[in-house]
Amino acid sequence: MRLGEKQKLVIVKKVDFGVYLAETEKGGAGERVLLPAKQTPQGASVGDTLEVFLYKDSSDRLIATTRQPALTLHEVGRLRVLTVGKIGAFLDWGLEKDLLLPFREQTRKVQEGESCLVALYIDKSGRLCATMNVYEYLSADSPYQKDDRVEGTVYETSREFGAFVAVDDKYSARIPKKELYGEVRIGEKISARVAEVKPDGRLDLSVREKAYLQIGTDAEKIMQMLECGGGLLPFTDKASPELIRSRMQMSKNEFKRAVGHLLKEGKICITEDGIVKK
User: Fold this and answer.
1) Residues contacting residue 243 through CB under 8 Å, at least 6 positions apart
2) What whole-number distance in Å separates Cα of residue 16 and Cα of residue 230?
């Protein structure tokens, strides 16, 4: 009897309120699980085999269902928040009993009506619950290669390591700190480029294109900043990397390349006050 999984069980007894299932026809009373009558296929008889999903009802008793849950044990997916209560949020996963997402398993506070990325696990009390800490449940066996474009959901952020992303909501990836420009939030969907496939199969991502493709976009952004600043950007490519990153959302090298590109085109000049539009 595998909690949180689909398995094939045999009908060993019929009662008014459903049928009892076991792994074999000789399954004893302590090895049986109830499939309620409303879930039992019409015409089902003792000896028939049914594929069911096992979970616990509101009284914490193991119970079977022929309905298809949105998640099985250790799977990752997006579920809608139905309500938020005193102990956590309750999610719609396609079964009669809603799935609990405890507050301690939330990486940010969720709100009623939104969808959030979660994994299904068994808690210390032996009950099925959801968690937003999905790292250990994501696959490292993605089909993507270097420079492929991917879509994903940010599920965790770290000042030290960057942002962790579930590509296609199933593959493990990270945007390294050096590749982060601007603020990213947990739950945010992003489009990125595969910068590297690690030896273990996990992906490193970049939200920026390769340098020769990105330079035009960066140069255009500098020109827009000049327009907003009355034709003056009050620092140059000799400014600190931290200042450039916070003001321009690009690295110092990327900024220098874009400035050089604009100088070559004759669109700007550099003075003691900063960069000036011609």
Assistant:
1) 235
2) 81
Give the model's pLDDT for residue 212: 52
The long-range contacts involving 266-274, CB below 8 angstroms and separated by at least 24 positions, are 267/223, 268/222, 268/226, 270/236, 273/232, 273/234, 274/232, 274/233, 274/234, 274/235, 274/236
Q: For residue 52, give the nearest of 63, 37, 38, 60 by alpha carbon.
A: 63
Dihedral sign computed on CA atoms, order 20, 21, 24, 30? negative
CA distance 259 to 114: 42
Chain position carrying tokens 């959302």: 249
Half-sphere exposure of 9 (CA within 13 A, CB side): 27
Choices 3.40.30.10, 2.102.10.10, 2.40.50.140, 1.10.10.10: CATH for 6-65: 2.40.50.140
Give pLDDT tens digits for 11-58.
999 998 999 999 887 666 568 999 999 989 998 899 999 999 999 988
What is the pLDDT, as a whole number, of residue 220?
A: 83
Residue 196: how many CA atoms within 13 Å on its side-chain side?
8
> Which residue, chain included where needed, has tokens 């026809």?
25
CA angle 56, 59, 60 (to 5 degrees): 40
Q: Is the pLDDT of residue 267 over 90?
A: no
Domain 138-206 has CATH 2.40.50.140: yes
State whether the Cα torsion 151-185-89-33 is positive or negative.
Answer: positive
